[in-house]
Structures are given as structure tokens and as C-alpha cells.
Specification:
785 residues, alpha+beta, six-stranded antiparallel beta sheet, 50% helix
Length: 785
């Protein structure tokens, strides 16, 4: 029995099921918590965004209403400023000559008590005015407004401004209009103080009602302040001491006016979120447009939001807690349901493991456990069969071990544990056993092999191979198998030669050894005899090769003799015949001329015979270069060449489509030249000779055919037509030496092919040949019969 497991199957199964269920519940609860939290945050953000958007959109309508109200003054003020410009022109463009008070008295009686006029010079300073408080006012202190003054001074247009409140506390509402003087030296300005009953109408378009409405729409919005571009509070003065912004708020407002970006400030401790947003006037750009922009300060409470987030967390926490408890209960029930029959199965398997193979496995309602039970039954059946097989195998091994024709020993190092009958017969006398003896005492050579094997095996198993003997390493013929041949020192002179094979039984650094010894003395002697025979055979081959080389040398010498020694007498005879004709002159009778012509023709024929004989002798020694051959192109070239050299021939050649071939193109060209030239040469006199070159497939082989309608020959000579110098026609009736067909046959035989001929006297002949059979069998499929 092994050590007790830390956890039983029941405990492990319950832990796994519980862990799985709780993991699923936590995963589902986590995603639900995240989704709900996102919904709460999104809802809160939408409420905040809705309040801000409501205020922004409503402020647009306020600005438009103010703009519409302000525009009611434009016409009257435009007439007044034109009156001012006319007086400036009349004064010779010198405002110092003008009485500004008298000019104001000429204006509309409704406005003249509340109007001031100004002349702003090119330096941005009020140089002339009826308002002494603003005399020498420098507009460059407001860079943005100064740039607008410069642009208005360069234009001839009339520029009405919005009604603005002065920068000083208690300053009235004022309406300004601008127009440049004709010479553009000054910018004329009229300021109207709006202080009558119509101001009440304008106040109805203020931010007070809008702020109250926005606050009522969002309960989380605690306060809403509206701040002017100069940092003054328009709405919310009571929330700041003295009605002025503190330094921190002022910096934030200035940053919003500068960047026009939304700023959010969170205060988790007080559960507040403050946002500052830029509120543009969203109307046409007037001189004071930038000074009418506003900043809205929204203070939102996060108390309700935080409460909902806390409730969401608690809800999901308790959900996970109760679901986990439920999972533990379910896991316990499932574990009991599964493990109760499993424990029974384990108990029955333990009994079988203890050796009780007759123990029956109980049936179960669980399909999976039923499969295990069936597997155990099968395993018990197989184990029983395996035991019987092992017993039979042991019996066969014993039988093989003791009846083997080789000597087999089982040894522990050098000591023999067990040996078969052949080992005892080979090393000891009958009736003596080798068990317990040492190999050193029986056969020292085998003992030496054992020591060498143990050294190599130890080095291989331990990895210590720094001083390993390479010869001994090579004797390991397989995985830890050692094999070598040794010679014994028996009493006779020759001794025995033993093949020793050592195989470790098992693993580890000191396994038992199986030693197989075979007497190979006879086999070694037979191998030596075979070696001697091979050497004698090689010697004979060398002698015959030398004889063949000598014969080839004699043939080369003969070819040289034929080429040179036989040609010399022929040239002498031919030369003497020419001299005889030249010196004989008129003494040579016509009959003698005929004899001399016969001499010349015979010499030419003999010279052709020598050439053909040399070609035939060299044919078998010519280098053979095998390539793919386009037979259509090769045949066309040969036919064109032959017909061009024999223009008087009455021959019509027809070439069919030919498959490709493999061979030496030069040699195959010679075959075609010899066959086609013979077909042209042996045509019937005075009759057009039809020569057909085609190919056909016979039993899967490609046969190339050269057929003519010439004189033909008797088929009884068909076997001799390919012999050297054989001519079936009377000598002299046709040109040739009778070597051409012999050369054709020799070339086709070198290609591993065959050639045959069919002919009939007066009807023509057909020469057919085939080349390499394997290649031509493949190409034979391309020919349509």
C-alpha cells in the first residue's frame, strides 16, 4: 500500500465542484456589478450633461434676445454719429475746433442728456470727449479691444456695439457705436447711457430665471453661478464674501476663458463635483463680443450617486455570499451521489489488487462508473491471460535457451550463473556444470571481452568518456550490445575463432550479462577461401582486360595501316595512270582510255571502301551521349540536305508526325542519312520514287519506318543485307560500298534497339527500327493508330 493521499476523492471532488460554482457565481456577479456601476455612472453623467446643455442652449436665446433689444438703438445712434462726422469734416478735420456739447444738443432729444461723444486717436487714446472721467483713457490696456479699434479705424463702416455694463461697481448700462472719420485719423465714438423704463424689459432676459429653472430640473445640482469675462459674479454673489470671487476660483475662471475647455474638480470628502464651462455669446462678432462671454460654475452633489453605488456593492456582495453557501450544499450532495458507488468500486478493486482475481465488480447505475467496472473486468481477464502467457513464454524461453545451437551463458560480471547445454558441451566435459564457475578459468579470451564491455558500458552510462578507447567504442553494435571475434589458444596450432556477443539484461550500472558464443572457425576459413578465389578472379579479369586493350591497340594499328599504307599504293597507281595519259598523248588509243578510266573508277571505289571500313571500325568506340531528340526536326534537316545534294533525283518525300526519341543525336542522324539516301538511290529509273517516313506503335514500342517504291530486293537475302560489303545489285549499277546498312545496324544495337526490313522486287522496301525500349514504350502511347 502506498502513502495515504492528502485528500480523498470525495474531498477533492467537493473542492473542485465548490470552486467551480463559486468561480462562476463570482464571475457573473462581477460582470453584473460592473455593468450596474457603469449604468449608475452613465445616468449621473447624463444628468450632469443635460443640466449643462440646458444652460448652454438657453443662454443662446438670452444672447439673441439681448441682441434684438440692443438693436433698437442702432438707427438713431447711426444718425447721431453721422452728424458728429459731418461736424468733424466741416471743422477741417480738427476736432479741437469743435464744441462737442453743442453737437450733442443737436442729437435726438430723447438721448441728448444721456449721450457722450469721443474721438479716439491712432494711438488708442481718447483725445477729445464730453466725458471728463474717460479723458485720456488708453485702450491699449485691453489688447483685444485695441486690435478691434485699429480695424474699425481703417474701415468706413458703422459699428454698433452691444449694451455693456461698465467695469466699475455701480456703473450703468451703456450702448456704444463707432465710425471712422473720413481721413481715418480718428475713430468717432458715441456712448448712450440706458437708464429709462425699458431697462426693466431687458432684465427679463437675464440669467436669473434660467438659473432657477436649471436648478429645479436637476436635484443633484446644488448651486449654479454665472461669472463675467472680468471675473465678476452675475449670478451667485451671495455665496462669496463681498460678492467677489476667491483667488482659486478666479484662476480657474481665467483658465476657462483662456482655453475655453471644461474643467472638473472633484471633492469626494464633501461628496461634491464642480464643473466650469465656457458660455459663448453665440452671436455676430461685435466690438465687445469677447467681453460678453460667460463662465458657468455648476456644483453637483454626489451623495445620491455614492449611495446607489454603495447599495450596488452590498447587493452583489450578499448575492455572492448566499450563492457560495448554496454551492457548498449542492457540491456536497453531488459528491455523495457520485462517490458512494465509487468508494464501493475502489474497495472491490483493492481486493483484486491483493490477489483475489475472483472478486466480482458490482453493477452501478452510473454510466461512467459502469465503464470503469467493465474496464476492470477486462483488465482482470487480461491479467489472468498475461500470467498464462508469461508461464508459456518462460517455458519457451527455457526450451530455446537450453536447445540453442550457440553457447549461451548468464553471468554476473565474470561469474557464471546459468549456462545452456551447448555451452557446457563446448567448454567442459560431459556431466560437469558451469554454474558458479568463473569465465577466466574456462576461457580467458571471453573474460577479457567481458571486462572490455563493462568498461565501455560504464563510460556510456555515466557519461565519462574522456579516455575512451575508440576501437572498443566501435564494438558496441547496437543499444548497449557488444560484439567481437576472439581466437582461443587451444592445444592445436590453429585454435578456434569465437564470435562473442554480450547483451546487458536490464539497466543500471551493474546489470546481469547474457553472453552468446558461436564457433565461427569454419565460416572464417570459408571466407578466406572465397577471398582467395575473388583475388584470383580479379587477376584473370585484369589479364583479359590487358589482352582486350592489346587487341584494341592492334585494331587501331590496323586502321592506321588501312588509312595510310593501303592508300599510298592507290595514290601511286592513280598518279601513274595520269602520267601515262599525259605522256602517251596520241599514242593512247580509245580502247586504252577505257582501261585507264576503269583504273580511276576502281581506285575511287577502293578509297571509298577504305573510308567506310574505318567508319565501321570506329563506330563501336565513338563516345555515346544520350539526349532527347526531336525526330521531326532531325528528319526534316536530313531530307533537305539529301535532296539539295541530289537535285536530279526523281524523288518525292512524305514525312508524317514523329514522336521524340532518346539517344546520341549524331549517331541517329547517321542512321537516317544512310536509310533515306538508300531509299532515294535505289529508285526505279525514269519513275518518281515515293519515300515515306513515319512511325507506328507495335506492342507498345515506337517503330520509325523509311518506306520507298524503288527496285526492292529478294527477301531471301534479308538476313545478309546488314553485313559489311554486301551488295545485292550488280557491281557498278549503283554507287556505294555495302557498309552503310552495317553501320546502321551497329548504331541501333548500341542504342538497345532493333531493325528489320521487308521488301519485294520491283515494289520497294521498308526499313523499320526502334531504339531504347523503356523510353519508346512511353512515347508509343502518343501515336494514334
Amino acid at each position: 500500500m502506498g502513502p495515504s493521499p492528502r485528500f480523498t476523492i470525495s474531498t477533492s471532488l467537493m473542492i473542485v465542484i465548490t470552486f467551480f460554482c463559486i468561480s462562476v457565481i463570482i464571475g457573473i456577479s462581477y460582470f453584473s456589478y460592473i455593468e450596474t456601476s457603469q449604468n449608475i455612472n452613465n445616468s449621473y453623467d447624463r444628468e450632469v450633461q443635460a443640466s449643462e446643455n440646458l444652460f448652454l442652449k438657453s443662454s443662446v436665446y438670452i444672447h439673441k434676445g439681448l441682441k434684438l433689444w440692443d438693436s433698437t438703438y442702432n438707427d438713431n445712434l447711426k444718425r447721431n454719429i453721422q452728424t458728429l462726422i459731418a461736424a468733424y469734416t466741416k471743422s477741417g478735420s480738427n476736432p479741437g475746433q469743435l464744441n462737442l456739447s453743442e453737437i450733442v444738443a443737436e442729437f435726438d432729444p430723447l438721448y441728448k442728456d444721456r449721450i457722450d461723444v469721443y474721438f479716439i486717436n491712432s494711438s488708442g487714446i481718447i483725445e477729445y470727449t464730453t466725458d471728463e472721467t474717460e479723458y485720456q483713457l488708453d485702450f491699449k490696456i485691453w489688447p483685444d479691444f485695441w486690435n478691434k479699434i485699429r480695424r474699425m479705424m481703417q474701415s468706413d463702416d458703422f459699428f454698433p456695439d452691444d449694451i455693456v455694463k461698465g467695469f466699475l461697481p455701480g456703473a450703468p448700462l451703456r450702448k456704444f457705436v463707432y465710425q471712422s472719420t473720413p481721413d481715418h485719423h480718428y475713430l468717432a465714438q458715441i456712448g448712450l447711457t440706458v437708464q429709462n423704463d425699458s431697462v426693466k424689459e431687458r432684465r427679463e432676459l437675464s440669467y436669473s430665471n434660467l438659473v432657477s429653472y436649471v436648478l429645479s430640473e436637476n436635484p443633484d445640482l446644488k448651486t449654479l453661478h454665472v461669472i463675467s469675462s472680468m471675473g465678476n459674479l452675475i449670478i451667485g454673489k451671495k455665496d462669496y464674501p463681498g460678492g467677489r470671487l476667491d483667488e482659486e476660483t478666479r484662476k480657474i475662471v481665467e483658465s476657462v476663458f483662456s482655453t475655453r475647455e471644461r474643467i472638473i474638480i472633484t471633492d469626494p470628502r464633501n461628496q461634491l463635483v464642480t464643473t466650469y464651462i465656457f458660455i459663448p455669446n453665440n452671436i455676430e462678432k461685435t466690438p465687445s463680443a469677447n467681453y460678453i462671454n460667460r463662465v458657468g460654475k455648476f456644483v453637483f452633489s454626489t451623495e445620491e450617486h455614492d449611495r446607489r453605488m454603495g447599495n450596488n456593492f452590498l447587493l452583489h456582495f450578499f448575492l455572492v455570499l448566499f450563492a457560495s453557501l448554496f454551492s457548498i450544499i449542492v457540491a456536497a450532495l453531488i459528491t455523495y451521489r457520485i462517490t458512494s458507488p465509487l468508494n464501493l468500486l475502489v474497495t472491490e478493486i483493492d481486493r483484486i489488487a491483493e490477489g483475489n482475481l475472483d472478486q466480482q465488480i458490482s453493477e452501478t447505475m452510473h454510466p461512467e462508473l459502469g465503464q470503469i467496472a467493465n474496464a476492470v473486468r477486462t483488465m482482470v481477464f487480461q491479467i489472468t491471460g498475461t500470467i498464462r502467457e508469461l508461464q508459456a513464454s518462460e517455458s519457451r524461453f527455457r526450451s530455446l535457451f537450453y536447445t540453442a545451437t550457440d553457447a549461451i551463458l548468464i553471468a554476473d560480471d565474470d561469474q557464471i550463473i546459468e549456462a545452456n547445454l551447448m555451452a557446457e558441451m563446448q567448454f567442459l566435459e560431459s556431466g560437469v556444470t558451469l554454474s558458479g564457475m568463473y569465465m577466466e578459468d574456462i576461457c580467458p579470451q571471453v573474460s577479457t571481452c567481458i571486462r572490455e564491455f563493462q568498461k565501455v558500458y560504464t563510460e556510456q552510462t555515466t557519461g565519462s568518456d574522456q579516455n575512451k578507447d575508440s576501437r572498443k567504442t566501435q564494438e558496441i553494435t547496437g543499444p548497449n550490445i557488444y560484439e567481437t571475434d576472439v581466437k582461443t589458444d587451444d592445444s592445436d596450432e590453429t585454435g578456434r575463432i569465437l564470435n562473442v556477443r554480450i547483451v546487458p539484461l536490464g539497466s543500471g550500472t551493474h546489470p546481469l550479462l547474457q553472453i552468446q558464443i558461436r564457433d565461427i572457425t569454419k565460416r572464417v576459413k570459408m571466407e578466406e577461401e572465397i577471398q582467395n578465389l575473388n583475388e584470383d578472379l580479379e587477376r584473370q579479369v585484369a589479364e583479359r582486360t590487358a589482352s582486350l586493350q592489346a587487341t584494341i591497340a592492334d585494331l587501331d594499328s590496323f586502321s592506321y595501316t588501312v588509312s595510310h599504307d593501303l592508300r599510298a599504293p592507290l595514290r601511286t597507281i592513280d598518279g601513274n595512270a595520269h602520267i601515262l595519259v599525259m605522256k602517251g598523248g596520241d599514242m593512247i588509243t580509245p580502247e586504252l582510255h577505257q582501261y585507264i578510266d576503269r583504273i580511276h573508277k576502281s581506285i575511287k571505289k577502293m578509297d571509298n571502301l577504305i573510308d567506310d571500313l574505318l567508319k565501321f571500325s570506329r563506330m563501336s568506340r565513338k563516345p555515346f551521349e544520350k539526349t532527347d531528340i526531336d525526330m521531326n526536326q532531325l528528319v526534316a534537316e536530313v531530307v533537305d540536305e539529301l535532296l539539295a545534294s541530289d537535285i536530279l533525283s526523281h524523288t518525292h518525300v512524305k514525312i508524317s508526325q514523329l514522336p521524340g526519341a532518346q539517344g546520341d543525336q549524331t549517331l541517329i542522324r547517321q542512321v537516317l542519312i544512310n536509310l533515306i539516301s538508300n531509299a532515294i538511290k535505289f529508285g526505279k529509273p525514269g519513275v518518281t520514287n515515293e519515300v515515306t517516313i513515319s512511325a507506328q506503335s507495335i506492342e507498345g514500342l515506337v517503330w520509325y519506318c523509311v518506306q520507298d517504291t524503288g527496285i526492292g530486293f529478294d527477301m531471301q537475302y534479308a538476313d545478309r543485307i546488314f553485313e559489311v560489303f554486301l551488295q545485292l545489285n550488280p557491281a557498278g549499277s549503283f554507287e556505294g560500298t555495302g557498309v552503310g546498312l552495317a553501320i546502321v545496324k551497329r548504331i541501333i544495337q548500341r542504342h538497345g534497339g532493333r531493325i528489320h526490313v521487308s521488301s519485294q522486287e520491283g515494289e520497294g522496301s521498308t526499313f523499320s527500327f526502334t531504339l531504347d525500349e523503356q523510353y519508346n514504350r512511353e512515347n508509343g502511347k502518343q501515336i494514334t493508330r
